[in-house]
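Subject: mismatched residue count in predicted assembly?

I count 222 residues in my input, but I want to confirm that the predicted structure covers every chain. Input:
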Amino acid sequence: LAKTTQPISMDSYEGQEVNITCSHNNIATNDYITWYQQFPSQGPRFIIQGYKTKVTNEVASLFIPADRKSSTLSLPRVSLSDTAVYYCLVGDNQKVTFGTGTKLQVIP
Amino acid sequence: EPEVTQTPSHQVTQMGQEVILRCVPISNHLYFYWYRQILGQKVEFLVSFYNNEISEKSEIFDDQFSVERPDGSNFTLKIRSTKLEDSAMYFCASSPRTGSYEQYFGPGTRLTVT
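Triage response: the counts match. Full output below for your records.
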């Protein structure tokens, strides 16, 4: 199971773009990169998943360089409601392991 | 938009009692999971379930725990004899495909063991 490293916390002002980078140096060939968001006392919410290059949906973009040893979740123009913990997960099996994630605090 | 539902939202029980936590996964999903999160700690994988069988389980999922899909819609987690340390949020999740970290979580059941 590929280990991931991401910042423990980040602060951002409302309206700014936020980029959260995750490193996963020993990612395996079959592994996908998945990001979740979790608000206090709620279940994790799937945000985006990718294998390589760039993936974009209505919530976020995910940038994955060619070597796939890192990935960046990009949240455009964050609002106060984006304050949450963001988890980067790498793998392809059913046993999902959540780390401590990145606690994003959006400041007015 | 379809979503995973869980009942009850909060369950209080005495140590040693049995509890059953219920989940209704998204209807066309085939893979089901239970996780728990002790207050202030990480989300921990308990068990995955497919085709009426456990696919994987963690070290936490010992003989006190069991899962069942009693009918076509419900998915349950039973804790036979609760301990104080079982107090946590329990999340059910479902996925449309295997080997995918694309899972959809329910709102959770807060279990308090006294």
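The CA atoms of residues 48 and 103 of chain B lie 11 Å apart. Marking this ticket as 'not a bug'.
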